[in-house]
Amino acid sequence: MSPTSHALPAGAPVAAPAATEPALAHRVSRAVVTVRGADGAPLADADVVVGQVRHAVALGGIGFDVVDLLDADAHDPDGPGAGAPPEVGRRLAELFTEVFDTATLPFYWGAVEPERGAPRLERLERAARWFADRGVRLKGHPLVWHTVTADWLRELPTDEVERVALERVRRDVTRFAGLVGAWDVVNEAVIAPVFDNEPTQNGITRWFLERGRIPVIRAAFEAARESDPRATLLLNDFNMGTAFECLVEGVLEAGVPVDAIGLQSHMHQGYWGEERTTAVLDRFARYGLPLHMTETTLLSGDLMPAEVVDLNDFRPSAWPSTPEGEARQAEEVVRHYRTLVAHPAVQGVTYWGLGDAGAWLGAPVGLVRADGTPKPSFAALRDLVRGEWWVAPTTVRTDADGHLVLHGFLGDHRVTAGDRAADLVLDRAGDAVVDVVLR
Amino acid sequence: MSPTSHALPAGAPVAAPAATEPALAHRVSRAVVTVRGADGAPLADADVVVGQVRHAVALGGIGFDVVDLLDADAHDPDGPGAGAPPEVGRRLAELFTEVFDTATLPFYWGAVEPERGAPRLERLERAARWFADRGVRLKGHPLVWHTVTADWLRELPTDEVERVALERVRRDVTRFAGLVGAWDVVNEAVIAPVFDNEPTQNGITRWFLERGRIPVIRAAFEAARESDPRATLLLNDFNMGTAFECLVEGVLEAGVPVDAIGLQSHMHQGYWGEERTTAVLDRFARYGLPLHMTETTLLSGDLMPAEVVDLNDFRPSAWPSTPEGEARQAEEVVRHYRTLVAHPAVQGVTYWGLGDAGAWLGAPVGLVRADGTPKPSFAALRDLVRGEWWVAPTTVRTDADGHLVLHGFLGDHRVTAGDRAADLVLDRAGDAVVDVVLR
Questions:
Q1: Are residues A377 and A425 located together in one domain of the fold?
Q2: Number of other residues whose CB lies within 10 A of the CB of residue A291
Q3: Taking residues A377-387, what's their average pLDDT?
Q4: Hey, which end of chain B has fewer CB within 10 Å, N or C?
């Protein structure tokens, strides 16, 4: 980052443009910061640069393109969790960190371990390290899911399915502990035991059917928890109705260690609007757990007809991004993120696909076109999360006591003076008093 | 009952016409019965009359008409749980026991106790005794429901709503213990906390919303259980999907003492058909609890359009029973009962309205027209449950050891010889050996 052109006078707060918006008060801290030198003495009347590094709320995307980019030989455009072709993936990798600070990596069992006993985890680890090196937090998706699961489970008796499924949870969570901080532990459990879109029953559906949803969820969460006690463990679903509510209630009554609720929000049939979005958030916030909007998409092309029930059933031969669609998408992305971040329960938002290349169903959901050029939504989202809600590097003069005032969004900031620097974390909304020591 | 005209020869089994249907094997017993005199000695080579009294599986209807008939001054055709006008109710009361052996009584809180502290339980007790005197089992509906609940709950804080709601459960279950053998303890909990069809929030919805579904269900079932340990306690819902599945799973994981699952099955939009019906039964049978089809209806007139989501939204000014509709209904009623009784998990079926008079939404759901004349469905159902599946009183000669063979449906039968008689209960499917002593 580079300092802004003009220095603020002593006493002037360094502030994010939207720091005073009442609807965002729970996301913002106004901190009186004492800047100290390495000797501990206040750095009085000195020019320092203050800037934000990352939001506390996870504003993420999927990192599938980077996985494929770093393992280009293995790129399979039709495979599960496929990224863009490497030539576009290269551009997406550059653009990723301009809007996102968290990446979801594809741990689909069927892709991770198509052949039993030969897990392909190196490519995921390579991508994870690429992101971590760039300050991007990581999330794994999913550990238990009835779709894109290992085909070879079909042959195993249910006891064995359960055993190997839990082994795989332990194996992957253990291997990525400290690197992947959050997991969609169980995905779409509401429908899992009654899922019948396949000619033969997959092993995970059978496991759910024979043991029940809650026992499967409990076993998976306990396996993940024991493998990485610090990870954030999510129960994720596309069902936004009473079924997922009832499941969450049952799971919590049963004492399953769920850390957060994941709500998918693919909007192929149109933007939900503020009212519906807030109603959904309110209904799931009742359980006292943080909420992640785990799979958010807004189209920049024609919408899927409302009468389609299973989105997988709609596969047009071409689904182009259109100028009108892109204008609409840019507006809706901003409205949607404003609504989500305004809700106190939201701890994370994952946009499900930076680029159109390789997108689910071929839909134009990306913020970037299939050719790698950004759509208007890309700049619109960046202007919001790294503009309005952000403290760009700003030079400010400390006062006679070495104080400066930072009025910014919760998250990681950095203070630098010459070749010394210090991290500055705003971790609680409201007024704060913070000391930083430049080293 | 009167004996059939011809006596069976010694050794010939007394059998229900459908006793050998493989699909019903779980409902049928083939018992070698030793008939003994009061002295305990086998009654050899004697003519006795054998006949069925009641099915083990509860084949019931709603008893609302009888409540109003016995308390005609209080009949309010627009009130909750209203029965037919007394002049039609009189005919319905006669017809009831020709097809039904179990009656559901209306315990809607808003009707039972419209004024706080002045419960109107005498009229329900009068009706309950009327049915019990005729050998009809009783079920109460419902104890906790957000609809037709007491209006005065709106004024109370939630703690108080909870307290009085549980008091009312204890009061009513205690008073009717030994008379009402089954209760819909909680009705429609899936939708209860998100129910918003009313201008102001009812007290029960608020209770569910603030405490959660499972805590409310647990409290209600525990109150009912302690008030009548022998009663069959049902969790009843109209949701036949994953939401009710998830709720049932959570409730059972939480250890709530649920005895049976109640599945409503109003078919105002058309008969489900055998395949869907069996699929629903199979999905809920997974939990190992008996199933009751608690609110079955099939129309004898035009169907409600498929696009209506909340059936309450459809209120035509007139909804006549038609000749074609009546023929269709008669066929579908028989198909539906065959499907239900063929399923081993089904413990009860309640047809939701013997007559059209006073039917929910004014729909022609009854087996009897509004003027009190039976539709074809009435005879069709009677021919099935009291014909094919029934042992009509039959004279048979015992053999030299006092034996006779009864091949009939599980339930209560009776053996008589002259002025002596004995109850004969078939309570387990398959072959059985039974002794009865005539007294």
A1: no
A2: 23
A3: 98
A4: C
